[in-house]
Design a protein that fits this description.
The chain has 19 helices and eight strands. The protein has helices at about 15-25, 30-45, 100-105, 115-125, 135-145, 155-165, 175-185, 195-205, 205-210, 215-220, 225-235, 285-295, 305-345, 345-350, 360-370, 375-380, 410-425, 435-445, 450-460, and strands at about 45-50, 260-265, 270-275, 280-285, 385, 390-395, 400-405, 410.
């Protein structure tokens, strides 16, 4: 086959580095925006933090004032952005020791050789934040041989894991829930019939217990309902996540949330503002502007030896201007979107009654603001508003519309509240199935399918009927 060349014309839409920068800034919540601005100040020499004074507007700098040439080299237009696949790092409250540090400290009081200590510390490093060791010991031994250069066996690691199982918090280092509960029981005094029965259930009948086959268990153990209930109560006193028993250090379970919007309601009026207390104001450092002006001759020409320096500073000023403009545009877009949401859900924001939430989807706000649906999605994602009745995630305000038999549209929140109420009031000995719940909601005038009931139940974090059963 002969090799040939041909020209093809096509049209495609691409985003400029500045547009990408604007999108990234729009997605950031307040905490991460503060970090992003400080990072930009560190990377761009012409940006500086501005001292806040009431009523002062950021100064607008025009490059054309001091430079008439626009032949900027391609590398000068570089903008420091991240790809869409990069994981945003959340900011956490931190302080004190982590769980791993606490465990290593306890290992120091054990009579371990240097080799055993190194191996035990490596095992501790594989324990996750819930307190579980979810990796196989064989895999850990391979990693130890590769990273520490120590040949070990599963048997040796198993012996060291038994030492870790004796540490606090009780149950740490367990490889599954059953082992976790048994480790906690071993540190209790088995001095009552209820505890002895509880240990027997977890040891020999754990699968039936998890599946809540209570009648079958009572028949097999030959105990009455009262004895069985006392044993179950002992098991429920144990923690399924021993890592949560230690909370001196920060974890993924304790994110540091700062609201992006502040909303007050008094005298029948809303007062909405953007929370920018910790977000620094930035401006272009005038020293660099004056430096370039000094380099430019009265006739507008530049000496060859100054050309590269001028181009470098010019590119930094261009980048700074774009960044300041993007921050302002972010402010305007967020306020515009939040104001529209406030007008759409004004009845809800007066007192926080979820039954007053209107059905609302992203397109409703996009149509009212004139913005794209993807822009609205970026605005509400990970953004919070502080109200008199709590801090609310904006994304949680959006809900589907459901129709009643009379044709009236109601929010899916109302359906979820009714579903929660029905489950709260059910007989726990005979929990309602999704089919029963569907019939109850249909009887109240809400046309809803069983699969929708199951979806809403899962969204509420409610297990299926079999797992809600109690004695």
């Amino acid at each position: 086959m002969a090799i040939s060349q041909r020209q093809i014309q096509k049209m495609q839409q691409t985003l400029s580095p500045q547009q990408i920068q604007m999108i990234k800034l729009l997605e950031l919540p307040t905490v991460q925006l503060e970090q992003r601005i400080k990072q930009e100040i560190e990377e761009n020499i012409v940006l500086e933090e501005e001292e806040r004074t009431d009523g002062e507007e950021p100064q607008q700098i025009s490059v054309e004032e001091y430079l008439r040439e626009d032949d900027t080299p391609s590398y000068k237009s570089y903008i420091n952005n991240y790809s869409k696949d990069d994981k945003q790092r959340p900011v956490y409250l931190s302080g004190g020791r982590s769980l791993q540090e606490y465990l290593v400290e306890q290992l120091g009081y054990r009579n371990l050789s240097e080799r055993e200590m190194r191996l035990a510390v490596y095992i501790v490093g594989s324990i996750d934040e819930d307190g579980y060791l979810r990796r196989e010991l064989l895999s850990i031994s391979d990693d130890i041989a590769f990273s520490l250069g120590i040949e070990t066996t599963e048997e040796e690691l198993e012996e060291l894991l038994k030492v870790i199982h004796e540490l606090e918090p009780a149950g740490v280092g367990a490889r599954n829930l059953q082992e976790c509960l048994l480790l906690q029981m071993e540190q209790l005094d088995i001095n009552s019939r209820a505890r002895r029965l509880a240990k027997r259930i977890v040891t020999s009948h754990f699968e039936e217990f998890v599946k809540k086959h209570y009648e079958k268990l009572m028949a097999r153990l030959q105990v009455d309902e009262e004895e069985f209930r006392d044993a179950i109560a002992e098991i429920r006193h144990l923690s399924p996540k021993p890592g949560n028993l230690y909370s001196e250090g920060g974890t993924d379970a304790t994110p540091y949330i700062i609201p992006d919007f502040l909303l007050d309601y008094h005298d029948g009026k809303f007062d909405l503002s953007l929370n920018s207390y910790n977000v620094p104001d930035v401006k272009v450092n005038r020293r660099y502007v004056d430096m370039i002006r000094d380099m430019v001759r009265p006739d507008g020409t530049v000496r060859d030896e100054d050309r590269e320096a001028i181009q470098f500073v010019k590119s930094k000023i261009d980048s700074a201007k774009w960044f300041i403009s993007a921050i302002k545009q972010r402010h305007d877009t967020l306020m515009r979107t939040m104001q529209t949401i406030l007008e759409y859900q004004s009845d809800y924001f007066k007192d926080g009654d979820k039954s007053k939430l209107r059905p609302m989807i992203l397109k409703d706000i996009a149509d009212r603001t004139g913005l794209d649906v993807s822009t609205i999605s970026r605005v509400v994602n990970s953004k919070y508003v502080q109200t008199s009745f709590g801090i609310i995630l904006l994304k949680s305000l959006f809900s589907e519309a459901m129709q009643t038999e009379s044709g009236e549209e109601v929010s899916s929140y109302e359906i979820k509240n009714l579903l929660q109420h029905c489950i709260d009031e059910e007989d726990k000995r005979r929990p309602l199935t999704d089919e029963n719940l569907m019939d109850m909601l249909n009887a109240k005038g809400y046309r809803i399918a069983r699969r929708t009931v199951a979806k809403y139940r899962e969204m509420l974090g409610i297990p299926v009927a079999r797992l809600r059963k109690q004695i």
